[in-house]
Amino acid sequence: MYEEGGHGGKRGKDGKRGNDGNARADRIGAEKAGPALGARVLPCAHLPSLSGLTAFTAFAATSSRSQASGPLSNPQPERPLSHYPIVLAFTGASGAPYGVRLLDVLARNRIPVWLIVSSHGLRLLHAECGIDSIDGLQQATGGDWSSVVPFPDEDRGALPASGSQRTGGMVVCPCSMGTVAAIAGGTSRSLVERAADVTLKERRKLILVPRETPLSLVHLRNLVSVTEAGAVVIPAAPGFYHRPTHISELVDFIVQRILDQLGQEIEISRRWSGKA
Ligand SMILES: Cc1cc2nc3c(=O)[nH]c(=O)nc-3n(C[C@H](O)[C@H](O)[C@H](O)COP(=O)(O)O)c2cc1C
Question: Under a CB-based contact definition with an 8 Å cutoff, are residues 270 and 245 in contact?
Fold first, then answer.
């Protein structure tokens, strides 16, 4: 049932990929880092009119052409790329811009990604970012998906469902409390849930980025369960000590924490320097 040894493959018209991923993974592993990543500028003055954060995704789509020149624009050093793919799942919690920005950074750095989007993940991508398809997500994240392989959430026999396939860990961003509950219960009723279950059983890093408020006792208990099982919970709760003036700085605050947990030496957000 599971294909051995591949990291995905070229996408066909139906958006699925074959199994020529080893060659591509090797090529990706030999390549160097992509273009420098700049912080995006999204004035807070736009906040009231930001239905679906369309401005965010519009900016994402153009950021390869226009690098921001502000103080958060950090050139990236040349560095080796991780060999194994990071499994990245979007589920149906608010916070789709965090996932979009994370995918944007990973794709632009040509870091191998296995992408899974739940049906409500896509619903939230549409509601919050104006993205209504996987192709739309590709356009919103720079367009170059040479290192990104999407998988359908319905296919529990796809590569991320097998522990025999080595990965660099998994991020669920954003992560609904429903998916937190499913991971805590080990239900594995979708590819997202199964891939998370596999990540835990193989003792690989599992990063969950939940967004819900307030939290019920059920939510809290499930978060404790997944943490006890080895997951890292990064609540989508950005700090303000870097005095953000743009939504992009709040988004990058969280994405920076995720990149740090993944061990990626990519700088997109100003760090605490000891004084405000
Ligand atoms: C507009 C909208 C916003 C939502 N926001 C959240 C949220 O912030 N956190 C959450 O846990 N669920 C939220 N939900 C509910 C989930 O989408 C729902 O529980 C869904 O079944 C999750 O499925 P999934 O985990 O397979 O993606 C939201 C739903 C909608 C339609």
Answer: no
Q: Mean pLDDT, consecutive 10-residue segments, the chain of 276 residues?
A: 36 37 34 35 31 39 35 43 88 98 97 98 98 98 97 98 98 98 98 98 98 98 98 98 96 98 96 88
DSSP state for residue 215 in the 8-state scheme: P
Domain 36-44+85-262 has CATH 3.40.50.720: no
Number of CB atoms found within 10 A of residue 152's CB: 15
Q: Is the CB of 52 under 6 A from ligand 1?
A: no
What is the Å distance from ligand 1's center to 110 Cα?
29
pTM (2 decimals)? 0.77
The domain locations on the chain are 36-44+85-262
Q: Is 120 in the pocket of ligand 1 (CB under 6 A)?
A: yes
CB-based burial, 203-230: b 16+ in 10 Å, e otherwise: ebbbbbbbbbeeeeeebeebbebbeebe
